[in-house]
Amino acid sequence: MNLSELKDFLDEKADVYNNLEFIQDDPVQIPHRFSLKQDVEITGFLAATISWGNRKSIIKSAEKMLDIMGNSPYDFVMNFSEKDLNSIIDKSIHRTFNGEDFAYFIKQFNKIYKENESLEDLFLINENENNFQHSIERFRQSFLGIEKHRTHKHVSSPYKNSSSKRIIMFLRWMIRKDNRGVDFGIWNNIDQKFLSIPLDVHTGNISRKLGLISRTQNDWKTVEELDLIIRKFDENDPAKYDFALFGLGVTKELL
């Protein structure tokens, strides 16, 4: 396929997979259970953070966190007691993300929301930036704090050349506006043109099969390589191609 044919093919696949049926088996269903902006942000960030492995187990683990928070995440974050946190610490949550990590996140959310109405404030893009590389790093410094903690590994860093797949996915959920009912588009101060594809094994393999990228690693440099071509396809909504690449990976259509 030439570039024009490839664009048409990916546009068609993005259109097929970007619909409400997508939500049924995807972690994005977790924040879709809420309407309050802060509830959507908190549950979206938590669900994205544990999004590795089997999708059913991810959703089950996210539901465990909802139960702990009494299905009122923002209220819990703002009003928890030390007893509440102590009861979480020894719990198993999802693989290496344990109760200690969850309790740490809750404390950090509390700190952030005392100073900001929305997590969006921590991800704003500065002038002369064209992706979220520096934005994610600023968020990490604000959210995680300076003091080293085991939980820091769960918020990956583009500065360490991580693809930061889970944060990029969370940003797509919060920022992207398309009226299809999957992404929320509740952040109004960040343009979706800055979004990238959440790069993991599946989207990476499909991208290579289609000749979109040449690098063999799924790292930040590859995210930027993929940016170059998908932004030529649609400079205003490049992240829509995540649905195409993810859908092609799940259905194994290209194998």
Molecular structure report:
- By secondary structure, the chain is mostly helical.
- It is 51% helix and 0% strand.
- The chain has helices spanning 3-17, 37-49, 55-68, 73-79, 82-89, 99-115, 133-144, 165-175, 201-209, 220-233, 241-251.
- The mean pLDDT is 92.
Number of helices: 11
Q: Helices and strands, in N-to-C order?
A: HHHHHHHHHHH
Residue share in β-strands = under 5%
Q: Determine Rg (CA atoms, Å).
A: 18 Å
Q: What class do helices, strands and sheet pairing give?
A: mainly alpha
**In one word, what is the shape?**
globular
Provide the descriptors you would attach to this structure in a database record.
mainly alpha; single chain; 255 residues; 0% strand
Short description:
By secondary structure, the protein is mainly alpha-helical. Helix content is 51%, strand content 0%.
Give the arrangement of secondary structure elements.
Elements: H1 3-17, H2 37-49, H3 55-68, H4 73-79, H5 82-89, H6 99-115, H7 133-144, H8 165-175, H9 201-209, H10 220-233, H11 241-251
